[in-house]
Design brief:
alpha/beta, 14 strands, 5-stranded parallel sheet, 8 helices, 7-stranded mixed sheet, 320 residues
């Protein structure tokens, strides 16, 4: 029974980034969302007011660091600090979408490694552990000196598509670029499907890329998979290529994180993609919920993980 256990009471609070997912997670656990005001002072500084005791409690703070990234990150840091100073016994930062994760190495001279900086900030603020999903590169777990559980969205997406009758010979799983091959191969084995890869290359600087399709997509239903869709350039170009060059009969896409910034929605609308399935790690505003976009919730998975962390059971079971 969740609620009381060896760590005192469990309490779940939410910042402003993804209140609807936080509410669903709390409902799954049969708990109310904790009473915390997360607002701003008139000069724009983050103002946190916890309106119930957290002393000795096992506290879970749910906050995606999606856009506006810096506001949401700062909210999370201040929430952690408030709970720490109010004597919470353990603080888990539940970050369904971990922003800044792409800045995980020096790609050019004088680049920052912002993912490491954010890891340091979360630890310094007082987080005891982190629960997240589909980090852009799993090495980011090593930027922390506290436990990090990196849940996988792929089984949730796989379940959705298998219910839609995706299976076997007439399906091809497509990696939109060479970097996503490992993820796509896993998905292909779940579906007993073949794998295709979109290979983009620039013959020389500033010349439009030439697309090659590695693998056979002819006459098949193509499903493209990525960890996130940001401006949707890669996925929509890949979708066009898999239809025009690869000869796929129809094309779908899915990802864990629907960042969908800038021209993304317009690109998806104009593309040959029939449907784009995203998880609700990032709360989408009304104007992004076009007919082609379908949102599937990860509330059950996060609720399970929270229950396991709280009860000191292995979270690794959720990866199987």
């Amino acid at each position: 029974m969740i609620g009381h256990g060896m760590h005192g009471q469990v309490k779940i609070f939410s910042g402003n980034s993804n209140k609807s997912l936080a509410k669903k997670i709390a409902d799954k656990l049969g708990l109310p969302l904790g009473n915390m005001e997360v607002g701003k002072f008139s000069d724009g500084e983050v103002a946190i007011n916890i309106k119930e005791t957290v002393r000795g409690c096992d506290v879970f703070l749910i906050q995606s660091t999606s856009s506006p990234v810096n506001d949401n990150l700062m909210e999370l840091l201040v929430m952690i600090d408030a709970c720490k100073r109010a004597s919470a016994s353990r603080i888990t930062a539940v970050i369904p979408y971990f922003g800044y994760a792409r800045q995980d190495r020096k790609a050019r001279a004088r680049d920052p490694i912002t993912a490491k900086l954010v890891a340091n900030l979360l630890e310094k603020a007082g987080a005891d552990r982190v629960l997240t999903m589909d980090l852009h590169s799993s090495q980011v777990q090593g930027f922390f000196d506290i436990p990090v559980d990196n849940l996988m969205g792929m089984p949730v997406l796989a379940k959705y598509f298998s219910r839609q009758g995706f299976r076997g010979d007439d399906v091809v799983i497509v990696s939109p670029d060479v970097g996503s091959v490992a993820r796509s191969r896993k998905m292909a084995s779940k579906f007993d499907a073949t794998l295709a890869i979109v290979d983009k290359r620039r013959p020389r600087a500033n010349v439009m890329e030439v697309m090659n399709i590695i693998g056979d997509a002819k006459g098949k239903r193509a499903l493209m998979i990525d960890d996130m869709i940001d401006t949707a350039g890669t996925i929509t170009q890949g979708a066009s290529a898999i239809v025009e060059i690869g000869g796929a009969s129809e094309v779908f896409a899915c990802c864990s994180h629907g960042v969908l910034s800038g021209p993304a929605i317009e690109r998806i609308q104009k593309s040959p993609l029939k449907e784009v399935v995203v998880l609700d790690t990032i709360e989408l505003p009304e104007e992004k919920l076009i007919d082609k976009i379908k949102v599937v919730t990860v509330a059950d998975l996060f609720a399970d993980a929270i229950e396991r962390v709280y009860s000191d059971l292995p979270v690794s079971k959720l990866y199987e």
